[in-house]
Design goal:
single chain; 568 residues; alpha/beta; six-stranded antiparallel sheet; six-stranded mixed sheet; 20 helices
Length: 568
Amino acid sequence: MLKTLSIWNFALIEHVQIDFDKGLNILTGETGAGKSILLGALGMVIGRRTNIDAIRSGCEFMRVEAVFTLDNNLVKDFLTKYNILVEDDDLIITRQININGKNSVQINNCHTTMAILRQLGELLVDIHGQHANQALLKPIKQLSLIDMYDGDAIQKQKEAYLEKYYQWLQIKQKLADSKINTQEMAQRLDMLKWQINEIENAKLTLDEDEKLESEIKVLANAEKISLLTQDAYKLLYEGENGKFAILSSLSQVRKDLENLAQYDENMAKVHQILDEAYFQIQDSADEIRNYGESIDYNPQKLDMMQSRLNDIDKLKRKYGNTIEEILNYLAKAKEELTYIENYDDNLAKLEQELSLLAKDVSQEALVLHELRQKSAKALEMAIMKELASLSMADAKLVINLTLNDDFTENGADDVEILFSANLGEDLKSLAKIVSGGELSRIALALKTITAKKDDIDLMVFDEVDTGVGGKTAQMMAEKIARIALYRQVICITHLPQIAAMADAHFYISKETKNNKTFTTIDEINYDAKLAEIARMSSGIDLTQASLENAEEMLTNARKRKELLHFDE
């Protein structure tokens, strides 16, 4: 439910705050006073496209803030999904557009995107006007109404259908991708054979390149390595420049400590450590000597190893950054080669699989079609009943569903609504013959029927009473009042019959001050409401007769609303 709508610098509005009521909220006023401005502001705060030209002249920005009461779990789940905090079951949406075109959107003080705002807006508000009426002429909208009318069973079957449909679609695409040009396939076959042969002939082994790089590094520095090992060995065993050899010196230290330990047992542990160190250094010296003697500088072997590494690098540039990636490429190439060599068999298997899936999809589509036919017949009768109460007792409406072989995400149904407004007239396509007034009444009938099923808490009617008057106007008023039993309704109207049904009545006016025009919106009391309905009814200056007529209209409206509550 929309509790409050606050608007700053939007068109002729400098600043207004409107506190809406539950039930039916009526907005009236003279033509041009700014009723469409209010809907524009509401559209702005739920993410609809808004031009910067709507910014009030001389201002740097326009801002709209809406406060909703949350009792819709779908909305709460949506907010949770996007990590938007909900406190005290209130939802505050603020949108500001600056003169430079910059948009700022906040939902419960969380900055967010226009995309998220638009999605949220679709869950919060259903704005119904002439554009929405025209949408009823589109088959996709008509099909969604049929699905909604018997929602649970049809939704469950749609899920079963979609599971098979997506499987079928995947195989269909795979089959299409497989039907490549014969010449391209032959060229690909030759390329794969050449690539496989090139990689296999290389006889690669994992980590071979790393081992080669290590060995090449040693061979390329063989002379340096030999000199370093000789020098190290000489220092350990022979010494240099008159200095004692390290091992000889360390051997003397061992003997001294061995003797010292005879006099002081505390030195025995030190002697043991040096003893172990001596033998470790001796083993290391032998390893250094053996390593140095093992280095055999072989230019031919070095050339062969470098050549092998170059060959591996060439393969890396073609097939992957590592030997593992090259071998993975080889495995995939072999798999593709096998597939192409068995192309005809694989194609036949895909076609067979597609044919079997098509039967499954067709069966699920048939079940969906039958459920829709049942729902369409019930919806058809419900619409006829509502139209009869809207002064269209002779109207006839038929919903035709035709099952075809063209599978889509919505099933395989073609839908067409046929309509005749008067006795003796042939049924014809609704899109071709319906008038604006007739379409408004059909749309209102649908809204009345689906009000209990709809999850959107706020429904907005934008002058749906165009081209309607007399008894039909009274019936339309009662339909809108009935919808307001289940949903909060905001309705802009020119009909006094609808205005009389208001739970809250707002009057929109404009005035000029200091050469500037201002639109104001005020909730009016009973006396002002009486005067406004009298004005709407007579279109002339107020008279005692017009006021008495308006009072009678309000009394009758109150009684009709009581009966509506009783009926429900």
